[in-house]
Amino acid sequence: MVNKEEYYKYIINNYKVHDIVIEYGKGTYLYDNNKKKYLDLTSGIGVNSLGYCDEEFVEELKNQLSKISHTSNLFINENTVEAAKLLVQLSKMDKVFFSNSGAESNECAIKIARKYSYDKYGFGRDKILTLKNSFHGRTLTTLKATGQEKFHKYFYPFPEGFIYGEANNIENILSKLNKNNVCAIIVEPIQGEGGVLPLSCEFVTKLKKVCNERDIILIFDEVQCGIGRTGKMFAFENFDVTPDIVTLAKGLGGGVPIGAVICNEKTSGVFKYGDHGSTYGGNPLVTTAAKYVLSKVSNTKFLNEINEKSLYLINSLKEIKSDNIVEIRGMGLMVGIEVRGNVNEYIDKAIEKGVLLLSAGNNTIRLLPPLTITMNELKKAISVLKEIL
After folding, report:
1. Rounded to whole angstroms, how far apart are CA atoms 96 and 102?
2. Confidence band, pLDDT 50/70/90 cuts, at residue 2
3. Is the peptide bond before 157 cis (omega within 30 degrees of 0)?
4. What is the pLDDT of residue 272?
5. In the chain, which ranges are E strands?
6. What is the helix (H) or strand (E) element at residue 384, kind and residue range?
7. Please, what's the b/e burial string for 159-178 (b: 16 or more CB within 10 A of its CB; e: otherwise)?
8. Got the DSSP string for 99-147?
9. What is the mean pLDDT of residues 199-225?
10. CB-count exposure of residue 71 (10 Å: 0-12, 13-18, 19+)
11. Which pLDDT does position 208 carry in this prediction?
């Protein structure tokens, strides 16, 4: 039987794993190889947006596998076109590029922004401004785009061209634009890995205005907070602005690896033949998954239920009387509980009680349950959180 020792023997040890061997999942629950049941508030770090083994989802993937799992982007594939059409219609933007992951989506967005600026202004206007506490991926470029110094250890030299500003501080952002060498600003509407830190509506509105005035490409990294996670189909809808580029991944595939870059009319024509590509990007299997997820999550009733569950969850957490809680923050079903003490100790206690949690930032419990979690399951989760806190 597979165990932790065998895991560490054969797999590179870059993850600190729990001593749990997951065997299968159903609904909002995961089951280990001892048949212990866990209420999952992690959804594979925001990936399993519809939970586990949704019967229709499984059937759609089976049907596609019986036809073809992959074909190159040298041919037109019906599923890819239909998934792109859905994303364009739902976002009211212009065109889509499919990738495999969030990091790839962000790499693509950065390339589009730099080429847009080069085509229009030539050399020298190529800096990307990102926010402190941000997280944009694990490739060298997206790692450097990440505004957390702890991620920049060991891997020098990094690609050049990134500067960092303060979230929710428009004056600080303006001070970074004095040299007129910034071509794009990339932000997470809610900084997930940074500690579940939402941007303010006022800041985002001013940021959009500045970008419009200076012809700077505004990129929203919605890899973690997009596709219904905030109670809106796209997180940017909470701020009443439309960015020039939106990057997606995680919840879009409901468990299969897919990323997407949605462009508005300003940016959708930047790439020409040969400028970019992705071997697996938008293949028939993953776009089948994306089509199913989009059709489910975009339903008004489904989104309203996310908001109802969010209100109940956040209000219930705020009612917990505990000196261990510093702050509750978040949006939709992306919630952070900043705590005193060692966050991993709380997570370990929750595991003992059959509830799976995530961490974020320096000391925050992060909740990213499947969007399909029920009120009764939320009540059970809150009961355990109250107990451990």
Report:
1. 14
2. confident
3. yes
4. 97
5. 22-26, 29-32, 37-40, 95-99, 127-131, 162-165, 182-187, 190-191, 197-198, 217-221, 245-248, 259-263, 325-331, 334-339, 355-356, 358-360, 364-367
6. helix 375-388
7. eebbebbbbbebeebeebbe
8. ESSHHHHHHHHHHHHHHHHHHHH-TT--EEEEEBT----SSHHHHHHSB
9. 98
10. middle
11. 98
CA-wise closest residue to 336 among 235, 190, 138, 158? 190
Pairing of strands 334-339, 364-367: antiparallel
**Number of residues that this document lists for the chain:** 389
Q: Vertex 206, ends 200 and 209: CA angle to 5°? A: 145
Three-state DSSP class for residue 38: strand
CA nearest 187: which of 167, 172, 170, 202? 167
Assigned token pair, 191 = 């900084």
3-state secondary structure of 240: coil
Q: Which residues contact 239 (CB under 8 A, 6 or more apart)?
A: 189, 199, 201, 204, 205
Q: Alpha-carbon distance 217 to 267, whole Å?
A: 8
Instruction: Give first-to-last CA distance, the chain, whole Å.
Output: 34
> Hey, is 373 helix, strand or coil?
coil
DSSP 8-state assignment for residue 27: B
State phi, psi for 245 to the nearest 5 degrees: -140, 140
Strand order in the sheet with 22-26: 22-26, 29-32, 37-40, 355-356
Task: Name which of 312, 309, 317 is nearest 385 in CA terms.
Answer: 317
pLDDT in tens, 39-98: 999 999 999 999 999 999 999 999 999 999 999 999 999 999 999 999 999 999 999 999
- CB-based contacts of 291: which residues, under 8 Å, 6+ apart? 60, 79, 82, 83, 86
- If you write DSSP's letter for every residue of 263-303 in order, what string do you get? E-TTTTTS--TTS---SSTT-HHHHHHHHHHHHHHT-HHHH
Query: 322-364, pLDDT tens digit by residue?
Result: 999 999 999 999 999 999 999 999 999 999 999 999 999 989 9
pLDDT at 130 over 90: yes
Rounded CA-CA distance 155/157 in Å is 6
